[in-house]
Amino acid sequence: MSYVNFSFLMLLLFTNCTLTTSKKETIAVRETSYKTKVSCKIENDKLLASYEGPEFLNDRDTAHLLSNLVANELGNHLKKEFSKKNYLKVDFKNTKIQTKGNPQFRYPSEEIVKYTIEMPLLKVKNACDAFTGIEHRGTWARNDIETGFQEWIQKLKNQIAVGEIESQLYSTPEGFKEYWVQFKHRNYQGKCR
User: Fold this and answer.
1) Distance (Å, rounded) from C-alpha 157 to C-alpha 96?
2) How many whole angstroms separate alpha carbon 77 and alpha carbon 68?
3) Is 84 helix (H, G, I), strand (E, B) or coil?
4) Is the dihedral of CA 69, 73, 78, 79 positive or negative?
5) Which of 92, 76, 90 is nearest to 187 (CA)?
6) HEC states along 126-170?
7) Of 87, 112, 128, 147, which has the fewest CB atoms closer than 10 Å, so is most exposed?
């Protein structure tokens, strides 16, 4: 795959969650070709996202980068809806995060992984019951996901969050662990203390 095609794939992956691409892109890793599928969409009050492909591309944990895409696009969606007085929050209780494959947790890895995220959105009545920010913090390889978690939450509070913060830890049998955190973004909900 040419650098231009790879750049285009990464642009799709990191810029537009409402665009669903089921087109298979061929990506060469260590002289081996893989089919990579990325999709992400928000519809009917639910976010659905998935990645299937190599664990690493060009020394980057590409499967985990799906979480970055979801956090960015879902955060933008929550803010946009909030501005239209459609108050939402993520239903962490019914969120499903799944992984398949056997990650090797190192580069280079030729392992294929599948990573899916399903996040239902709940409508709430009041602006201060909604959340307009979402972040994640996760790992495939470490058992110490708790290390630094409280400091990370405090950093969010100091920089962009006000009031209540909700968090939920998700884990999969393949060793993936990830915290998802939703909060009130001070630029949108500064009065909600």
Assistant:
1) 26
2) 14
3) coil
4) positive
5) 76
6) CHHHCCCEEEEEEECCCCCCCCCHHHHHHHHHHHCEEEEEEEEEE
7) 147
Region 102-106: what's the mean pLDDT?
66
Residue type present at position 49: A
CA–CA gap between residue 169 and residue 38 (Å, rounded): 23
Give me the amino acid identity at 98. Q
Contact 52, 112 (CB under 8 A): yes
Query: What domain range includes position 69?
Result: 3-189
Contact at 8 Å (CB) between 121 and 89?
yes
Neighbours of 88 (CB within 10 A): 22
User: Pairing relation of β-strands 96-101 and 161-171?
Assistant: unpaired
Beta pairing partners, 159: none
Domains in the chain, number: 1
Say which DSSP state 15 is in.
Answer: H
Residue 25 phi/psi, 5° resolution? -110, 135
**Residue pointed to by tokens 């664990």:** 55
pTM above 0.85? no
Backbone angles phi, psi at 80, to 5 degrees: -60, -45
